[in-house]
Amino acid sequence: MSKIIDGLYYSESHEFVKVEGDFGYVGITDYAQHELGNVVYVDMPEVDDEVEAGEDFGAVESVKAASDLVSPVSGTVVEVNEALEDEPGLINKDAFENWIIKVELSDKSELDNLMDAEAYKAFIGE
Amino acid sequence: MNYKFFPHTQDDVKQMLDKCGLKSLDELYKDIPEELQFKRDYDLPRAMSEIEVRNFFNDLAMDNTALKCFMGAGVYDHYTPAVVQDIVNRSEFLTSYTPYQAEISQGTLQYIFEYQSMMAELTGMEVSNASMYDGCTATAEAMMMAVSNAKKRNKVLISETVNPFVTRVVLTYAKFHGIDVEFIEQENGVTSRADFEAKVGADDVAGVIVASPNFFGILEDYTGWADFCHEHKTLFIMNCPASALSVIKTPAEWGADIAVGDGQSLGIPMNFGGPYVGYLCTSKKLIRKMPGRIVGATTDADGKRAFVLTLQAREQHIRREKATSNICSNQSLMALFVTVYMSLMGKQGLREVNEISYSNAHYLANQLVKTGKFELEYPDKPFLNEFVVKSTLNIDDLLSWLNQAYAAGVPIDDDKLLMCATETVSKEDIDDLIEAINQFIEEGEEDNNNE
Amino acid sequence: MNNTFYGKLIFELSKEGRKGYSLPENKLAEYKLNDLPDVLKRQEAPCLPEVDEMTVVRHYTNMSNNNFGVDTGFYPLGSCTMKYNPKINEQMCALPEFTGLHPLQDEENVQGALAVYYNLQRSLSELSGLSEFTLNPYAGAHGELTGLMVMRSYHLANENPNRVKVIIPDSAHGTNPASAAVCGLEVVVVKSRPDGTVDVEDLKPLLDENIAGMMMTNPNTLGIFEHNIAEIAKLVHEAGGLMYYDGANLNPMLGKCRPGDLGFDIMHINLHKTFSTPHGGGGPGSGPVGVREGLEKFLPNPRVTREEIADDIYWYHIDDCDDSLGSISGFLGNFGVMMRAYAYILTLGKDEIKNVGPLAVLNANYVKESLKDYYELPLDGVCKHEFVFDGLKDKSTGVTTLDVAKRLLDYGFHAPTIYFPLLFHEAMMIEPPENESKETLDEFIEVMKKIAIEAKENPELVKTAPHNTPVRRLDDTKAALKQIVTYRELLSVDEL
Predict the structure, then answer these.
(1) pLDDT in tens, B156-194
(2) Rg of chain A over CA atoms, in angstroms?
(3) Strands B416-420, B386-391: parallel, antiparallel or unpaired by DSSP?
(4) What is the DSSP string of C446-457?
(5) pLDDT tens readout for residues C33-83
(6) Residue B132 burial (CB < 10 Å; 0-12/13-18/19+)?
(7) Is C362 helix (H, G, I), strand (E, B) or coil?
(8) Core-most of B81, B312, C381, C387, by most CB within 10 Å?
(9) Residues near B236 by beta carbon (within 8 Å), at least 6 away in sequence
(10) Would you tell me the crossing angle of helices B164-177 and C175-182 to the nearest 10 degrees?
């Protein structure tokens, strides 16, 4: 049974957004890390790159699978989680704690298109 | 139906059909609409016995003429020690599949690891992939790697001194992949520094491809080129024949980001063009952009050191259209070939091969000039085993005169010949060639006198 | 193959001053490589091993003993057609009159080699029903790329630059979309129906004016013959697209069906699958590309052509064509591989080659019928050269397809292709080529049944397999995280 945290926003491609003020922390959900298996690499954008809702911004790789990261929100990347460069397996330890990028949100109304915890729980059938 | 490759007896076929609830082999194809089935006999020769097959190829062999080779242009006649072919022919290597099942493929995985280690040593680079089709396609892959790495740049430069057999493949890949390729001009046989700086300085170039030795055999001086590229966020890509790297300045020493080329010069027979082996080496930082397979070290469940295909999530069977390349094989057996070759030759043997080739080529060049009909096209440029001569003789006629015994070189213009010498020719062979050329000159003079 | 792990690296056998080669004395030593300017010379010698000749021989011989090959045992590998590699082919391709040829030698001196190239090309045409072939591509994926370049060139020549979409079934080999991407084309996926064939209704709306063509393999990766192929080809052609045939699954067609007769316009053939050339642990392969009449001018340069200079006397030429898509290889491809394939075709001849397909298909159906009570068969009915099980029938044991595959290694068989096609979670794709005898298949069937029983009675035994191989299951995650890919790096770490 996957962990789901109340108060976050969820996408159908299994990313989450945790909003703090004008910023959003984006990562993959616990369900997604479980499906992927041991994460061995996270391909991340650079600070100042623009991301757009629905567009790829990187990828997560496990030994035998790879999954594109689709941004649930639009905005500018203000920080990337550099700890993942040395230890990508942190995502398996705690996917919500180990977000991937911090984005300055350009359009907060986009959050309305995402699921809340309850809807996401139903979506993954748990 | 009983044939040496088909073990099925009539009785076997019947029992097997019974198991499937079928009456005839034709029923196995009943789902294919009648009109789409192939009903006649193939228009092919009758089956041949092994004796007939052997005779057939032996007859064809007589339509080929093996010649003393003074030809290079990317393919070099180096000696293959007997051990190499013997090892490569071992059926445990020859008839094995790609080493996906690592537990029963340690032989293959281990030699690929050795191959990667040796290619990294030769080029000086940090990592190597498990090998590629040939040097031409490896260079095209390096170009695509540079563009993918640059993200927003779509232009690659290639020097006019790069082997045209390589360049034409690069241009084909570029055309379809949608990459702009521009040439860097050559001046007196080497890449123009001024043109290079002007074009890279425009800050829209993903990668630059140069060669050393270049197509004309010249060893180019690239001091400062890699730094200039890096200042402009451009990758510096070098194409070099593998064997030469044991003695000439390496791509890593020049500061290159990607080293590519053909490994044929590591003792692989010329094979009328293939199979050869392409190599592609790069820095650790670019490892995930690298096409093709990679073998890495790990441990098994008992903690034993062993080897396995790794970083597969970059590859086509997982990433499909987002893969770094569509390549899904390596030239594994040819990688084994050059690995065994390098194991035998070691650092000293490879050096000696290049020293003898150097001596032979320079002697040949001198003797040609002495005939009075040849001069070096680039007399002030250093070369290793290959050079361009300009001649007052008719090159076509000369080559026809020689071609019962010699592959005397590759004509690159009406009056220019690209010639090469390796350790497989002796001083006597060179003297014989020069004598044959002198005879041609004398005949020509007699003809002139008769006219 | 033996089960004693060897495991040493050649570098670990090296000792300074040993050598494994001999070269003639340099009689021209007055010409010194050392005279090259310092700036052009390598500063430090490469760290290559220094070993004597016999040590090299033993090292690689011992290493080979840790390898499984077709000569060792049966490979039920789906879509890989691991057939026997005849020995006569190896001897013919090693004839020095062929191996000693430089690719740029004068035409006059290579007529025998060009005859092999030309006649193999003609044989493939007859076997596939397509008019002309190039043998230049080095492998199947390279053939796909070349074939797609032909497709693109055709549309460009017809002034249709916007035709950039390639339709690919969701069951296709991963190389198909990857090759399309390298060729600068866009991939559009068409769904499969529950019976595994292309959903024609799903296809129709995809056929617009931007379609370049469609890539298919037939039989598909589930071993099912696409019986709607004529209709699919018609629809794609009416929409202005071309049909591409992925020849990975050509083997069952030999003797029974030709891609050209099914409406395909372009195809590649894997000589290392259908035409018996060895896989060599991953290559060299060869991926000839054939095209329908009218497309041959787009094939890559150089081309080999034939001229009749007297009655039944021919002269072969190496030509370039102006309309060609360009060059995709240094010279004329993997010539050594072509020699083997041609020897194979001559050996079988018209009489025997037609039995290849039916016997391969018989073998596949026999194995399928014998095991379907033990393994989940999602698609029943007659298959072609291969079929797919969706794991064990009894899913309660927790034993996965990977476990079954690894346990097979203990019993001396190679594993099937696993987790492909992606349509099934526990896919296990089995292809027994025509060379395998009923006895071998019976042994395989018995072992597969035994593993199914073990999965119930002693699941741990299967989950921790293999037990009798030179090494046990490997830590893939460690390999990916540590990224130790050279001996130098291996030396730099304290422990793995």
Answers:
(1) 999 999 999 999 999 999 999 999 999 999 999 999 999
(2) 13
(3) antiparallel
(4) HHHHHHHHHHHH
(5) 999 999 999 999 999 999 999 999 999 999 999 999 999 999 999 999 999
(6) buried
(7) helix
(8) C387
(9) B207, B208, B210, B225, B226, B229, B230, B254, B255, B256, B257, B258
(10) 100
Please judge whether A61 and B322 are an interchain contact, meaning their C-beta atoms are less than 8 angstroms apart: no
| Partner residue opposite C336 with nearest CB, options B46, B274, B349 | B274
Instruction: Write phi, then psi, for B369 (nearest 5 degrees).
Output: -60, -35
Residues 6+ apart with CB under 8 A from B256: B125, B226, B236, B237, B238
Q: Is the pLDDT of residue B316 over 70?
A: no
Q: Do C486 and B77 touch (CB under 8 A)?
A: no
Between chains, do A66 and B288 touch, taking CB under 8 Å as contact?
A: no
CB spacing of C61 vs B354 below 8 angstroms: no
Distance from CA of C183 to the nearest CA of A (A): 22
Q: How far is C451 from chain B, CA to nearest CA, in Å?
A: 18
- How many whole angstroms separate alpha carbon C59 and alpha carbon C7? 9
Q: Measure the N-to-C terminal CA separation of chain A; round to a whole number of Å.
A: 7
Gap between the Cα atoms of A26 and C94, Å rounded? 59
Provide the shortest C-alpha distance from residue C143 to chain A (in Å): 26
> How many residues are recorded in chain B?
451
Taking the C-alpha atoms of residue B315 and residue C179, their distance in angstroms, rounded to an integer, is: 12
Cβ atoms of residues B276 and B80 within 8 Å: no
Q: Specify whether the CB–CB gap between C244 and B26 falls below 8 A.
A: no
Say if domain A9-107 classifies as CATH 2.40.50.100: yes
Delimiting residues of CATH 3.40.640.10 domain(s) in chain B: 82-340
**Cβ proximity of C495 and C488 under 8 Å:** no
Share of chain C above pLDDT 90, in %: 94
Q: Give the right CATH number for C357-469 from 3.30.530.20, 1.10.1660.10, 3.10.20.30, 3.90.1150.10.
A: 3.90.1150.10
Architecture of domain B69-76+345-450: Alpha-Beta Complex (3.90)
- State which H helix or E strand residue C144 sits in: helix C140-157
Domain ranges, ordered by start, for chain C:
10-64, 101-353, 357-469
Nearest to A97 by CA among A41, A25, A43, A11: A25
A63 interface with B at CB cutoff 8 Å: yes
The whole-angstrom separation of Cα C92 and Cα B286 is 42
Please report, for residues B136, C80, C148, C150, C158, the alpha-carbon distance to residue C322 in angstroms, rounded to integers and kept in the order given. Answer: 21, 36, 18, 14, 16
Amino acid at B82: A
pTM for this structure? 0.96
User: Which residue of chain A has the CA closest to C481?
Assistant: A40
Residue C336 identity: G
Chain A CA closest to residue C482: A40
> Do residue C481 and residue A88 have CB atoms under 8 angstroms apart?
yes
Cβ–Cβ contact B230 with A under 8 A: no
Take residue B122 and report the two structure tokens written for it: 């030769």
Chain A interface includes B296 (CB < 8 A): no
> What three-state secondary structure class fits C380?
coil
Q: Give ipTM to 2 decimals.
A: 0.97
At B328 the pLDDT is 73
* Contact predicate C374/C446, CB 8 Å: no
How far apart are alpha carbons C343 and C339 in whole angstroms? Answer: 6
* Tokens (6 digits) for B13: 């076929």
Q: Tell me how many residue pairs between chain A and chain B have CB atoms under 8 A apart.
A: 20
Q: How does residue B447 score in pLDDT terms, banded at 50, 70 and 90?
A: confident
Chain B residue with minimum CA distance to C144: B326
CATH 3.90.420.10, applies to C101-353: no
From the number of C-beta atoms within 10 Å of its C-beta (0-12, 13-18, 19+), residue B96 rates as buried
Rg (C-alpha) for chain B, rounded Å, is 26
